[in-house]
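Chapter review: from sequence to fold.
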Amino acid sequence: MINLIRRDLIIQKWQLLFFIPFILVFALTDMPAILIIIVASIFIPFNTLHYDERAETNILLNSLPYTRKEIIASRFLAAIVYLCVSIMIVSLLLLLFQKSITLTDIMLSAGLFLCFVAISYPIYYMINHGNTTMFILIGFLGLSFIMSPIISNFINNQPAVINYILSMPRSYLYITGAVFVSFIYLLSWVVTTVIYERKEF
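The token string follows.
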């Protein structure tokens, strides 16, 4: 599986040259740290899916000595690796430019990214036709645009609920969130594996 992850990085070697400058542009703006980490984390894994979609790489992958379970496992494990790398790079850049980033920013961005992957991967492997990756990313941006006022409205109209959540110990919130996101991610991993094993190429 490590070789599959290395393959993705080798294929994207030219795009990776733009990775840090790409993040640097966002780090120099007033964009919240949470969004910068999410955007940085999305860069490599979804670029890989977009490349695979255009080159019909799944036919090649299935001719290699890897099971379909290993191919899907490499995708889900790679997403976690890219998330960790993105968090480290974004944190260093923000600290370098004396901008704030907190543990809460990191935890929230990691949780949101992993949930996005958990929703996107099954959809991608279920459809995997044409510009599926682009539609998924556009859908994510559209959903973010729609959800932003809904969340703001909820926060403004439900202060009792927000105060109750904020009154909980932060460690409890982190652990609860981590368990929830891990469950969603593992469930998506299983579902995506089943979809991919039944797919014909």
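Two observations follow directly from the output. DSSP finds ten helices and no strands in the chain. The chain has a mean pLDDT of 79.
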